[in-house]
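User: Could you check the structure of this?
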Amino acid sequence: MIVAFFWQVTHSVQLLYDQKLSFPARQHRPAYFEGIEIMHRKLMNLFYEVRDPNLSWDDIGGYADVKETLKEMVCLPLKKPEMIRKHNLGIPAGVMLWGPLGTGITMLAEACAMDAGVSFVYVSGQEMLGKHEELKEAFDIAIHEAPCVLFISDCEWLAPRAGCDYEWSPGNLRAIPPTFADKELTKLFVEQIDRINQVEGVMLLGSCYRIDTVDQAVIKEKKRFNRKVFVHPPTAVDRRGMLDIYMDQMPNLVEGIDRDELARLSEGYVGWDIESLCKRATVNAIKNDSEIVTAEHFMKALKEVRQFLTPDMVEKYHVIRDTDCPHHYEF
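Assistant: Sure, the predicted structure tokens are below.
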């Protein structure tokens, strides 16, 4: 049985399919494909998953600029490959999304697959540590699923940059990976990237929390992750979009709450924090025996929910982006 996993990033608990579908006849299938009838499977193991995408752009709050870039870099090559070739415009070999944790990067990758109308193959970089055969198997399945989006999270775990500085400022090591792949697994990961880029119809996406912590062999080579998308710390406009996603789902919300003001006051919040803010406001209402959630409950929650992004982290993110090679961020 193929192992599977979907790493939950935000509030949405995704329904995993238990629909029995037969694989179409394919030549040269690995042995472990033989006899398998369930294409979209139940949660079984913490390695990877392949499924039909469920999330659209509208399910993700904020990041209009990032979405537009992904529509161009990821969706166009899948939707109009012949047109791109006709105009002699090279297709990105791989696209690395990087930015703060909790901003919905995995959701953005899934929305790319939804937009392009292809399968979504998700590989958890964290859970692949020490699992050489499973990593190769995941790439085999992406080849089998083509056309598809192959998304590999936490590439800094699989291919760490030797000797890099993880500090945001002296003493601040927030979000540093606790462990990394061994050299053999990193070598295998690079080999699989090279192999997948020879397969038409597989759009390779990766993610990391800081682009300067990934092995340069992975992001500098033209045939690997040769394009980057900066999923920047959320602006007030982005946070307003996130608030809309969560607040619109609150059944007992009083009318007239100034969402723009909440977005302004939630500086340093990522999507996780916005979710926690809405939950905390609801808890405050329940504790007060209130049947509605009011602005006062949100104001109290703002004092209780700590932001993930500290000012030095926000500053360092923009310094890293501003000093990075600019042409990697263009189609």
